[in-house]
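G.,

No rush on this.
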Amino acid sequence: MNILNVWVLSRPALRSSSCTYYLIASVMPVPIFIIVTPVNQILVNNRGFYISGTTVTCKLVMFFISTSSLWYASMLVCATIDRFLTSSTLVHLRHFTQVRVARIIIPINWILILIYLSPFTIIYYYDPMSSNANKCVQYSTTLISIYLISRVIVYYVMVPLLLAIFGTLTIYNIRNQRHRIAPVNQFNGQRRTESQLARMLIIQVASYLLFFTPSGIIYILVTFFPSLNTSYYATIRSLAGAWQQGGTKENISMGSNSW
């Protein structure tokens, strides 16, 4: 399905839009996010082996999962902001929707995420004496707690908030455009392409908010209210995580089906 999305977004008619580049970039890390956990579960059930159950993978698995999920979310935010700017009536805002701007923002965003999440390679370590089944445990310090809280705020508060705000503003701008004078024929093709991209993005944003919100609420509650970190809420968090993973697959699928 990821290959299908890349193929759809790589069509010549869409290459002139900066939003296309953000959406293609968002697809790339998705396999890491949606494959690691199922594969790990299969290995645990059939072999009793945890992917994160070694000195090296304990650090890398948590780092790659966290990086891929935040990368996907950040590119979706960039695409949403891009659609808002494109639909704006202000010319100086539309200047930021050029392809060359997207080519600059994408690598800068990638570097910033790598830097921000690099502590994940440090705060987790392999402890063969741990009671955890996978022996991968987290250091417990005040600084680490503050850092993890910041990640919860960024991923589960700021990202959904930005998606909701700019997604709503984009819909508002598009509806206003329908009441204006229709463009001349030579721009009809471009307008149709922009409308398709906007529709695809709105579907993905709505899907993201639907599937990621339950998991976000649970993580926020457990993070800010440690007394709720019980086996009961751990089970709910696992179910919310499974719902979130299913949402990532569905989000990508609906993106290609919207064409």
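When you get to it, here's the other one too:
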Amino acid sequence: MIKLLIALTLLVLVGCAQNAQPLRGPVQLDQVNVVNLSNQTLTSVKIEVLSTRSKIVCKQVAPEGFCAFRFKERELRGETAQVDWQMGDQEWQVSIDASEVDISSDWYRVSLDLNLTADGKAKIIAVESN
């Protein structure tokens, strides 16, 4: 009887251990994609993180195309960036806040898609990286 209780206890503990989730540290960022959701070419696209003055620049992004920047992973912090771009004669400028990005609680590494639209809107979407 005691052996049976020990065996059942071990079985329960092993089952619980298999479902345990590893502790996740800060989310890591390894890529930024500038995505053109319009039917016109975007030019002079610049993303600047205001606190660090770090910049990403795309000279041109084709209609429904994208420009990708891959880099050594770094901690994703909720910082504000300014985004500037041109579409034809129109110039756009918006501020975006990385702290407003929805990220699944079980993701460790992400890339960010910055979607730019024909009406001057910018939206950041997190995508899990492998």
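The chain has one helix and eight strands. Confidence is low (pLDDT under 50) at residues 3-14, 16-21.

Enjoy the weekend,
O.
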